[in-house]
User: Which sequence fits this backbone?
């Protein structure tokens, strides 16, 4: 591998990792202060309800992602292919 490429990719990964950790630390207090405690509580409750319904919906929807690509193959062809 080219050492310059590895260094550039490592730096890019480090920058993205740090920014993904720093960004919420800056924006979270700003959003809470802008919304106020009552409005932020409503937003938090709505997010919790949406997450709950997402958990209920996800087990029913995940298998449909795999059915169509695997439908034309029989079981033996699928095992030999992977």
Assistant:
């Amino acid at each position: 591998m080219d050492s310059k490429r590895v260094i550039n990719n490592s730096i890019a990964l480090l920058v993205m990792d740090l920014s993904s950790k720093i960004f919420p630390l800056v924006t979270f207090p700003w959003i809470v202060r802008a919304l106020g405690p009552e409005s932020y509580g409503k937003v938090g409750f709505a997010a919790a309800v949406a997450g709950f319904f997402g958990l209920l919906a996800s087990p029913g929807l995940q298998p449909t992602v795999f059915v169509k690509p695997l439908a034309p193959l029989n079981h033996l062809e699928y095992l030999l292919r992977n």
Helices lie at 3-35, 37-70, 75-81. The chain has one domain: 3-81.
